[in-house]
C-alpha cells in the first residue's frame, strides 16, 4: 500500500494482481463480461487490504482438542454502500469477501443546470458501531463522493467510520474530497493524470457504468 505526499488520506493499493487486472479493465476491447468479472475480483483484493485494521475481539470456543479464545471481528457487521449504479459491481466483490456485511445504497444523479449531485435513493443500515465502506469505481470530480459522505454523516455515521474505495481516482477528485471530508481514508488502485473537459478521468477506463452494464 502506497501513500502520496500531497494527499495524506489517500492509499494506493499497488499489489501486482490488482494492477494487472486493472490494466486489463482499462483496455477498450475488454468485453462487458470480462470488465464486470475483473471489477469484482479487484474489489475483493482491495477489500482484503482495507479491512486489515478492523477491530477484533475473542470468542471462547471449543476445538475438537481444547478450549481456546479465538480471534473474531468485533462490533457490528460491516456496511458496504455502493453509490449507484457503478458502485454495484465493486460491492459484489466485497460481499464475497465479507458475506455477512450489510448493504446500503445511495443513488445520485447530476443536475444538468447546477451540475450538483441530487439524491434519488437512500437506504442504509443502522449506523451505530459500524464501519461503512462507500464504493464508487471512479473518483472523478469528487462531488458525488463528498455528497455521499454528507448523506452518511446526516444518517449518523462519523467520517472516522467511513472508508471510501475507488478503482481509479483523479487528483482533482481526491483534492475536493479531502477538503470536504479530510478524516475519511480513500483507497484506490490508481491515481491517474487528470480530468478532461467532460470530467472523464484520463487515461481512466471510460464510463464505468456503461462498460459494466453494456449500455451507451
Ligand atoms: N465516471 C466514469 O464512469 N468515468 C470517468 O472517467 C469519470 C466518471
UniProtKB/TrEMBL annotation:
Catalytic activity: UMP + diphosphate = 5-phospho-alpha-D-ribose 1-diphosphate + uracil
Positions that bind uracil: 201, 206-208
GO biological process: one example: uracil salvage
SUPFAM superfamilies the UniProt entry points to: PRTase-like
Binding site for 5-phospho-alpha-D-ribose 1-diphosphate: 85, 110, 136-144, 207
EC primary class: transferase
Keyword field contains Transferase: yes
Cofactor-binding details, from the entry: Binds 1 Mg(2+) ion per subunit. The magnesium is bound as Mg-PRPP.
Associated pathway: Pyrimidine metabolism; UMP biosynthesis via salvage pathway; UMP from uracil: step 1/1
Recorded GO MF terms: GTP binding; magnesium ion binding; uracil phosphoribosyltransferase activity
Phosphoribosyltransferase domain sequence ranges: 13-215
Enzyme Commission code(s) on record: 2.4.2.9
Obligatory cofactor(s): Mg(2+)
Function: Catalyzes the conversion of uracil and 5-phospho-alpha-D-ribose 1-diphosphate (PRPP) to UMP and diphosphate.
The protein's name: Uracil phosphoribosyltransferase
Source organism of this protein record: Skermanella stibiiresistens SB22
Amino acid at each position: 500500500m502506497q501513500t502520496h505526499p500531497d494527499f495524506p488520506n489517500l492509499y494506493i493499493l499497488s499489489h501486482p494482481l490488482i494492477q494487472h487486472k486493472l490494466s486489463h479493465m482499462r483496455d477498450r476491447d475488454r468485453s462487458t463480461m470480462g470488465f464486470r468479472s475483473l471489477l469484482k475480483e479487484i474489489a475483493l483484493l482491495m477489500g482484503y487490504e482495507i479491512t486489515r485494521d478492523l477491530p477484533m475481539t475473542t470468542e471462547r470456543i471449543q476445538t475438537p482438542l481444547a478450549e481456546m479464545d479465538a480471534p473474531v471481528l468485533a462490533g457490528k457487521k460491516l456496511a458496504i454502500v455502493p453509490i449507484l449504479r457503478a458502485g454495484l459491481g465493486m460491492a459484489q466483490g466485497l460481499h464475497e469477501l465479507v458475506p455477512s456485511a450489510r448493504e446500503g445504497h445511495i443513488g445520485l444523479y447530476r443536475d444538468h443546470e447546477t451540475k450538483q449531485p441530487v439524491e434519488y435513493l437512500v437506504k442504509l443500515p443502522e449506523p451505530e458501531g459500524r464501519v461503512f465502506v462507500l464504493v464508487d469505481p471512479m473518483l472523478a470530480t469528487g462531488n458525488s463522493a463528498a455528497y455521499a459522505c454528507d448523506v452518511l454523516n446526516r444518517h449518523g455515521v462519523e467520517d472516522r467510520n467511513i472508508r471510501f474505495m475507488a478503482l481509479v481516482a483523479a487528483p482533482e477528485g481526491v483534492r475536493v474530497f479531502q477538503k470536504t471530508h479530510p478524516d475519511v481514508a480513500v483507497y484506490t488502485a490508481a491515481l491517474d493524470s487528470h480530468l478532461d473537459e467532460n470530467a472523464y478521468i484520463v487515461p481512466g477506463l471510460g464510463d464505468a457504468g456503461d462498460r459494466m452494464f453494456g449500455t451507451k
